[in-house]
Amino acid sequence: MEPTTLVVNCGSSSLKLALFDRKDQKLATVLVERLNTPHAVARIQGLETQITIPAEGGYEAALQAVLAALKEEGLMTSDPTAVGHRVVHGGETFREAVLVDDDVLESIQACSGLAPLHNPVNLAGIEAMRKLYPTVPQIAVFDTAFHQTLPPRAYRYALPDHYYRQWAVRRYGFHGTSHYYMTREAARRLDRTPATTSLISAHLGNGCSITAIRDGNSVDTSMGLTPLEGLVMGTRSGDVDPGLFDYLSTKGITANQLSKVLNQESGLLGLSGQTNDMRTLCDLADHGHEPSRLAVDVFCFRLAKYIGAMMASLSQLDALVFTGGIGENSSRIRQQTCSHLGLLGFDLDAELNHAHGGFSDGIISNPDSRFPVIVIPTNEELVIANEATRLAGSPMARDGAQ
């Protein structure tokens, strides 16, 4: 049978699977929504089939139902030869993808305090797949791993030293698989090697982050200890004055309440009072809805400020790259952001920008722009699949480690 690699991405109420062959071709994508509720449903991309997901049984029951449907549809003709798992937080323990064993599981659990909404559900997916496929190598790929090359001046907070030494309070960064992919794909399009490529990579979706990449390595990034720091996002505030906590405590707002507000009720949603969907916001703004216009303006201005800040970590810049759902698809956001950067020499070609970089190199800037600007669709699942395939072929995996 054709060797395949399965990619598993577990969220708190969702589950996404992707199946790849060894030629990097995606064979199937499955999305499970409203997991652990009576309304849980799964769909295989491109098919009308709806998969019934048990309301109980958690990730293991959901995975069993999805895998059975893939086999019934003829999309998965044998057990996978490797399973790659997205894990959000690896702390300082994991600098790269690893083959999962009991020690790795304990270390991922130890990082759960840094990502309480993410790591526990990532672990649940790994444990479920180990039960379903006890002899198949399971590989953990960490969002934070790519950023382990950050220098101390970029990852340390100006806090008492023991906060870092005792409690690992530092900046970690996220979206690492996306920024890693941007490095390799941009280098290919620019006819360079990753080790000689320096970029500013803007991953813009419901979650947003920006990374300075110098000679193929992450040297600064906008997200910090958690995925809350940095840019304005769909429902996350990004940077706020830390004094906000003290001030709002005098108004009766508790730390838990404020944490929920900053993570789930802020960002584009909070500013607009309407939605966190950028397409809808742009449409509302065009029809005179002032809060939506403000949300778009704040998003673009904050992004432009961070682009300028990232240049402090670079000695050269080969390209500014836009990716993610917003970065890839919104010509308006790209144009409005770059309009704040004229002093730095970024100059977009209106036609190319409108076409979303509709050419093989994805370049949307004018030839006389000081720096190229590129649109590149991200492919985090492919990165995870490639890492899983690589590690599944290691001697440790062949000797039976799980």
UniProtKB/TrEMBL annotation:
ATP binds at residues 16, 203-207, 277-279, 325-329. Its EC number is 2.7.2.1. It is an enzyme of class 2 (transferase). Its cofactor is Mg(2+); Mn(2+). The active site is at residue 143. Pathway: Metabolic intermediate biosynthesis; acetyl-CoA biosynthesis; acetyl-CoA from acetate: step 1/2. Keywords: ATP-binding, Cytoplasm, Kinase, Magnesium, Metal-binding, Nucleotide-binding, Transferase. Substrate binds at residue 86. The record marks 175, 236 as: Transition state stabilizer. It catalyses: acetate + ATP = acetyl phosphate + ADP. It is found in: Cytoplasm. Mg(2+). Can also accept Mn(2+). One of its GO terms (molecular function) is kinase activity. It holds the Pfam family Acetate_kinase. InterPro entries: Ac/propionate_kinase (IPR004372), Aliphatic_acid_kin_short-chain (IPR000890), Aliphatic_acid_kinase_CS (IPR023865), ATPase_NBD (IPR043129). Mg(2+) binds at residues 9, 380. Homodimer. Catalyzes the formation of acetyl phosphate from acetate and ATP. Can also catalyze the reverse reaction. HAMAP family: Acetate_kinase. PANTHER family: ACETATE KINASE (PTHR21060). Belongs to the acetokinase family. This is Acetate kinase.
